[in-house]
């Protein structure tokens, strides 16, 4: 089991008091396992510092503006390649079968292609297998890293570290194809409403229900403090 993937999964979840308390332990895990390069871990440190020191409501507001208000920054990976088409449903079924074959019981209300869920699954797999699976989504993650970097977001370092681990370059053709799509404006609420009205298809009970990280995730990363699954986060402002 790779605790680093669990740690990165937690970092990409909706901020909670428990996550704030676990920030120091997450940094220790990333430094000890050396799955990410030292440069990548150093680049992630400002996010860990923010989690420890910033007001929880400011952290949550920043997260919502980035990942809930912008479809081009969605953490639901298949949305970037399939949108809401039928192909996404088929890909979702295949991914669920991959989880089940690996003995991973998905209990979250988030969608199977939610990046924190994928990372938690990868934490249960041998490192070579985890890398191979991550490479399949590597072009999406590299594109997310660049989009976040353009917005000078502190979360860009997490995506860049994952892309580096998967050995995906931002210059790759598939990455550039994704980046050719114009970025959303998270402040243009009318445009966002129009987009969501066109996207009624869902693949889970409640895609806004909160962090997918399993209960007591940080407790399973002994000797770190307990990290429990946050409750449902508030409704996205534009809905």
Structural class: mainly alpha
Report the total helices.
Answer: 12
Beta-strand residue fraction: under 5%
How many domains, as an integer? 1
User: How many distinct beta strands?
Assistant: 0
Shape: globular
What percent of the residues sit in helical stretches (DSSP H or I)?
A: 55-70%
Calculate Rg over CA atoms: 17 Å
Query: Distance between termini?
Result: 38 Å
> Major sheet, described briefly?
none
N-to-C SSE string, H for helix and E for strand? HHHHHHHHHHHH
Detailed description of the structure:
With 239 residues, the protein is an all-alpha fold. The chain has one domain. The chain is 55% helix and 0% strand. It is built from 12 helices and no strands. The protein has helices at residues 3-11, 17-33, 38-53, 56-68, 79-82, 86-101, 115-122, 127-136, 138-150, 156-165, 173-179, 189-197. Helix 1 runs antiparallel to helix 2 (17-33) and helix 1 runs antiparallel to helix 7. The longest helix has 17 residues, at 17-33. The protein is globular, with a radius of gyration of 17 Å. The model is unreliable at 198-210, 212-217, 222-232 and 234-239 (pLDDT under 50).
What's this, in brief?
The chain has 12 helices and no strands. The protein is an all-alpha fold.
List keywords for this structure.
239 residues; mainly alpha
SSE inventory with pairings:
Layout: H1 3-11, H2 17-33, H3 38-53, H4 56-68, H5 79-82, H6 86-101, H7 115-122, H8 127-136, H9 138-150, H10 156-165, H11 173-179, H12 189-197
Helix pairs in contact: 1-2, 1-7, 2-3, 3-10, 9-10, 9-11
């Amino acid at each position: 089991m790779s605790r680093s993937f669990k740690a990165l999964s937690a970092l990409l979840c909706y901020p909670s008091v428990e996550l704030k308390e676990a920030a120091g332990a997450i940094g220790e895990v990333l430094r000890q396992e050396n799955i990410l390069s030292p440069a990548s871990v150093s680049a992630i440190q400002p996010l860990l510092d923010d989690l420890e020191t910033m007001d929880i409501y400011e952290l949550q507001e920043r997260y919502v503006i980035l990942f809930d208000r912008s479809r081009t920054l969605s953490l639901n990976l298949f949305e970037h390649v399939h949108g809401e088409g039928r192909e996404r449903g088929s890909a979702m079924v295949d991914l669920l079968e991959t989880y089940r074959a690996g003995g991973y019981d998905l209990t979250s209300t988030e969608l199977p292609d939610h990046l924190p869920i994928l990372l938690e699954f990868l934490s249960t797999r041998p490192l070579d297998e985890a890398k191979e699976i991550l490479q399949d989504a590597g072009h999406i993650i590299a594109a997310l890293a660049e989009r976040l970097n353009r917005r000078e977001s502190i979360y860009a370092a997490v995506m860049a570290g994952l892309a580096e681990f998967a050995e995906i370059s931002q210059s790759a053709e598939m990455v550039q194809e994704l980046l050719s799509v114009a970025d959303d404006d998270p402040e243009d609420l009318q445009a966002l409403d129009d987009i969501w009205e066109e996207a009624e298809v869902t693949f889970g009970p409640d895609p806004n229900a909160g962090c997918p990280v399993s209960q007591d995730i940080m407790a399973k990363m002994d000797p770190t403090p307990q990290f429990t699954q946050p409750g449902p986060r508030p409704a996205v402002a534009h809905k």
